[in-house]
Fold this protein.
Amino acid sequence: MTRAVRRFGGLAVGCAVFLTVQPLNRLTAQDTTAGKTVYTKWCAGCHGDNGAGDGPGARHMIPPPRDFTGGIYQIRSTPSGQLPTDADLLRSIDEGLFGTAMPGWKSRLSDRQRRDVLAYIKTFSTFFADTTQRPQPIAFGSPPGGGSGAAALKVGRQFYDSIGCRKCHGDQGRGDGPSAPTLKDDAQHPIFAANLHENWRFNGGGTVEDIYHRLRTGLDGTPMPSFSDLIENKFLTDEQLWRVAQYVRSLSPKETPVVRDVVHAPLTKTLPHAPDDSAWTSVDVYWFPLVGQIIRKERWFAPAVAGVWVKAVHTADSIALRVMWDDRSESPDTAWLPFVGRVLNTLESDDSTGEQPASWPDQLTVQFPVSIPSGMERPYFLMGSGSAPVYQWRWSSSARTAPVAGVARGIDRFDPLPGAGPGAQAVYDHGQWRVVFIRALASTDTASQLPFRTGRAIPVAFFAGDGSNGEHGTRMAISTWYFLALDEPVPARVFISPVLAMMLTLGLGMLVVWRAQQKTSYRRQQ
Amino acid sequence: MKGRIFSVVSGMFLLTVCSKGNQSNVQAAPPSSSANEPAPPPAAAPAAPAASSAVSTAGGTITGTIKFTGTAPRNPAIDMSEEAACKAKYPTAPTEENVVAGPANALANVFVYVKSGVPAGQTFTAPTTPVVLDQNGCRYHPHVLGIMVGQPFEIQNSDPLLHNIKAIAKANRPFNVSQPNAGMKTTRTFSAPEVMVNLECNVHGWMHAYAGVRPDPFYAVSKQDGSFTISGLPPGTYTIEAWHEKFGTQTATVTIAGTGTKTANFTFAAH
């Protein structure tokens, strides 16, 4: 193997020396045959045999797979309009594009395979063969210090406003700006402005450097422009643009959220009914990712809600559950109707009946079993079955304070329980829903409405739908089962026992010492 | 070699007669040869219709009027409520400019150009005068423009708010740059002929402009009265194409001999 590589290397050097005509191009040209094999096996399913981004999987994705024939790439180190460097392309192949269907291939393909397929991908566009199109990476520099300090973030926020980020990304950065419903990519597909609170889903990576690079290069093929000219036009300084990047980074959590399976609901004296009650700030928050419902027809590969943030508390007789999720539209909203139309046009439906865009509301469902299971057995996570139903709270933005409780026996069968809905309060605030559900722990109808009990792991699952993304019915985002645990009140003996034990130990110890002293003094006297 | 001699000869020919100047609303850069001959200074005028008298032209002229039949579709009103600074520039609610009609069904904003017939070996030097695209009142001015390969394309912002200018192209490299304030300028060039390069602003979804990029100066944009003039054409038989953003394209064949003027009228069907 090494000998082959050495021989190949020798040949390459020979070519370079004797031909002296772009030795690099000649090398990559030799790789494209192997690259094609890799491409056909691993890439063509989405990107298409001819690289036009039209493989069989393409019509199930938003954003759609890259069309290589135009030579237009989002993630680059080069100015807007230039080709990417090989290093740029390799990074996208290696790491994938976060928040999209494009996975990273570093662990699946060898170095050689990835380089070969890179060379092959470049053959789809004539621009790569054009020697006048030499990509020139931007000299980015490094971020100025103090980036997480209040002063730096204030400058960042100031320029976030003045360079117009909020037009698309929104005032609070959740991708809900006034222009967001009109956004299209070059191929007229609908495209979301990134939710800046989810940096782990930024296509080109979520570090301050990544964000700054995207500000400088823009995301070609998308509405995101380059802001490099602003520095040249002296509208802002390089440092100020870095501050924007640092501000944007500060909107997301310090670390990518990690899933913890069990929501702990501590015992409190009073229930916080309002979503923004200050009592919620001291309660632990749990993150649960959601994925598209692709099990039952009609399948949904392009969910808008990426996950839910959950908090819970309980009193001696009631429970309050707060579910919070980012949604760039307060549906139903007619401003988003054309967007819904584009979503439905872009995605191939596996439902025989085609559908017209409509003003659907946003939805959230919290699901429990009808009773706490004694063993590991749980109903089917996707809304139960005929033999093992589930108990659900179905909230909708068109009836914000009146969620419906009911029993589901599969994704297409839901029997509401009239008058049994939990209490609810909801707030929509700059691209985020916060909904508090309240219910008594006890249940009068134990056959279908779960009685909550402390000290037991209660299965819980979440389903969410963004009406302005065309989501309703089976088109939604789903989670698997997680758990909710209502912490038991701590009995008094937990606090008293250690004190008693300590006192007893101390007493015994003192007794031993006293006895020993007695003996010593007795001996001395003798 | 023959082509080279031809272009040198034709270049000299055009230079000698350039003072005769026909009326034209296009800039006519004198052709230069593909040999490394010093290029003659470019014509002074950009594509601005107002500068017609300053244009130096020679050769034949194609002129015509563009009309449409049927009822022109209504241009949708633009909701500028998000942009008070733009809204304030209009006494009444502005509309999009998809179909701009003049009196007697005249059709403006049609890009008319010589699609074929210009000898392949002939090259033309792009004027150094830029073609200006102004963003004013959250609309593009002009809405349709012609520009030569290599000619500076100057994009300026006259609005005190963010515009991004995205060029969607196939033969050219695309670009997408931002101008968050009034007074900002960006200059770009196009490297290959393309009819049309689409320009759009994603902040304001109604903002669209179209640039016809040509390797020669033989193009024009129809005016409010539907008229257009292409001049400076050497003798030959040409295919002329008229492009409209909603009504599609039409072609005509025109033969030019000497310095005469030929008429090519186009009629689109409104649909």
Notes: The first helix of chain B runs from residue 2 to 17. The two ends of chain B are 49 Å apart (CA to CA). The interface with chain A takes residues 82, 161-162, 164-168, 170, 173-181, 184-186, 188, 191, 202-205 of chain B (CB under 8 Å). Chain B has one domain: 59-269.
